[in-house]
Give the backbone structure.
Amino acid sequence: MKLFLDSADIEEIKKVKSWGILEGVTTNPSLIKKAAEKYKVKNLETYIKKLLKVCKTIPVSLEVIGTDYEEMVREGKILHKKFNKISRNVYVKIPINPCLQKSCSMKSDGIQAIQTLHKSKIKINCTLIFTPEQATLAAKAGANYVSPFVGREDDYIREMGRIKFEKNDYFPKEGFKKHKKRLEDKGIISGVNLIEKISTNFKRSKIKTEVLAASIRNQKQLRECETAGADIATVTFKIIEKLISHSKTVEGMKKFTKDIVPEYKKMFK
Ligand code: G3P
């Protein structure tokens, strides 16, 4: 499974890139806002160009802001034209269903925009996926990545069951029982279960689109996404830092350091 950083923070990207483990970057309007505020960015276009140069050849997802077919296609082309020439690594993020109100349940503009941009040879990351069917349709339309939101699926299931939770709380991949009844979102019992279903379908139907697990809230969930078949996972800088840490590693380091005999040390002089 490839590891991407879910961030628009150039310093975080630089750091993880320098560790030699970064395989991609995902952004969205919320992450861009966070970075722009943190660095008091005056010219966002220049900032994004700098970010792309830092990333060199690894894929970077940039999201459109429109909600209609014409707007999304226009913006997708602008993002591609302005930024892809820098490192040829831009993936345009298109929401699967750009409805803004709960009462609007279906808007096919996302699917149509994917198809048009795909025909123009623009790489697509289809975002805000919450069902296996949305993923399959996005793939059929030509998306290179589909991004199911693992943590937000768990949030939704917990909210429906009126379960209190903190954002980063672990949610069991095998689902959650309340009064002996398993909570579910029309058959989906957890965010990891959503990844599992999409990955299984894609493998069975020989769909080449990669499954990019997004909205991952903790290390355990990341591990489960890999087992569930995700091709890529995108995580925050905080999660990446946690992946490197373990108290027994620190304990082991202390013991090894204490046990170094002078003759062994001498060899390195
Ligand atoms: O990649 C999607 C991600 O940025 C959303 O994360 O934790 O706000 O659901 P979260």
Notes: The chain has a mean pLDDT of 97. DSSP finds twelve helices and ten strands in the chain. Residues 6, 26, 28, 149, 151-152, 214-215, 234 surround SN-glycerol-3-phosphate (CB under 6 Å). The domain at 2-266 is CATH 3.20.20.70 (TIM Barrel).
